[in-house]
Amino acid sequence: MEYDDSEREAGKLTGLLDYADALRRNLNPQLEGIAMRLRDEFVLRRFSAVSSDEGATLSKANMPIVVSPMREEDIDGGIRTIQEAFANDPYNLWIYNDRSKIDLNRNRISLRIRCLWGLRNALFHVAKEEGSDKVLGIAMWIPPRAIDKPLTWGEWFWNGFEDWRLWGNQVVMNLQHGRGGLNVKRYYIWKARQAEAHKEVWTDPKGYYFLNIICVLPEAQGKGVGRALFNEVTKKADAEGIKCYLESSRDEPNTKIYEAMGFKLVRGMDCDDDGEVCKLYCMVREPKVIA
Ligand SMILES: CC(C)(COP(=O)(O)OP(=O)(O)OC[C@H]1O[C@@H](n2cnc3c(N)ncnc32)[C@H](O)[C@@H]1OP(=O)(O)O)[C@@H](O)C(=O)NCCC(=O)NCCS
Questions:
Q1: Closest ligand 1 atom, CA of 86?
Q2: What residues contact 216, with CB distance under 8 A and at least 6 apart?
């Protein structure tokens, strides 16, 4: 039997299509399997509790973490997280050095004022286990302020109003509850050293995302919650080409943890009260270039 060219071409095409069909039938489930595994890996790495020890591997699969914007109803859980996570923090021990005077109730009121300010003025996130309302960690970032871009009247008015509001609330709290063990002299020493550090380090005209608070409940630490909280803002900073900045109150293990997030130590900050020194670690993260 003789075939003309067009019949031969059609035959070749049908053969190719049959072959493609067969490939798709056979490969699809495998590709789908690979895609699912990659997705699971991504979700686990991005949102889940990741730990290297075997005992915690189970919780890794069972503890997907969801990061969402902080809401007013999360504040109580956030305050508990701050108080537990910072209980033995070196800065906390230095600035509340007379432990007999500590008033945790006054501290809760002070933190509530700060958190309410953060809801209105900061990038404020909360991490929870999926399906649970328990706060596992929080992060508050102050957005960058470009030094070469003057504030609009609206921004100027809003910032001024918010600064006065914060200050006013703090004054009322101090009148009602006292200082609650806060060493005021040390507070001002810290503020002065911090202003010097910002002047020296914050040289980028685009400004910096400033990590004001990050903490994870002690029982949830080391499981990827901090990483998930960081990612929320570092990915934004990368997309905008803006640097991030933080002040760590601990050398070990925190500077290592922050290095894992891409931060580098740029300077120390010694808060010295007549020889009793609290050392802080200023770290900067360069934005990653997105291909
Ligand atoms: C600092 C803190 C926020 C980190 O959050 P976390 O949930 O414990 O951290 P993660 O589990 O997400 O770990 C983040 C990265 O640091 C690494 N890391 C965690 N613990 C570490 C340790 N002890 N040593 C070295 N690296 C460590 C992790 O491997 C991870 O890197 P990877 O994602 O590349 O694997 C949290 O531990 C915390 O709240 N600590 C107490 C309060 C505090 O110190 N707050 C900050 C004040 S500056």
A1: 42
A2: 81, 85, 127, 136, 137, 225, 226, 229
Ligand 1 pocket, residues with Cβ under 6 angstroms = 85-86, 89, 214-216, 221-227, 248-250, 253-254, 256-257, 260
Whether 61 and 48 have beta carbons less than 8 Å apart is answered as yes
Chain centroid to Cα 151, Å, comes to 26
Residue 153 counted as domain residue: yes
Q: Which of the pair, 160 or 276, is modelled with greater confidence?
A: 276
- Whole-angstrom distance, CA of residue 275 vs CA of residue 291: 49
Residue 191 lies in a domain: yes
Residue 111's alpha-carbon distances to 96, 133, 143, in angstroms, are 15, 20, 19
Instruction: Please tell me the distance between residue 223's alpha carbon and the centre of ligand 1 in angstroms.
Output: 8
Distance 143 CA to ligand 1 centre (A): 22
Alpha-carbon distance 278 to 174, whole Å? 24
Do 166 and 113 touch, CB atoms closer than 8 A?
Answer: yes
**Are residues 203 and 254 located together in one domain of the fold?**
yes
Residue range of the domain that includes 139: 64-285
Residue 265 sits in a domain whose CATH number is 3.40.630.30
pLDDT digits (tens, 9 = 90+) for 181-239: 999 999 999 999 999 999 999 999 999 999 999 999 999 999 999 999 999 999 999 99
Same domain, 35 and 99: no
In whole angstroms, give the CA distance from residue 55 to residue 63: 13
Report the residue among 221, 229, 255 best suited for mutation to probe ligand 1: largest number of ligand atoms under 8 A from its CB. Answer: 221
Residue reference for tokens 């809760």: 108
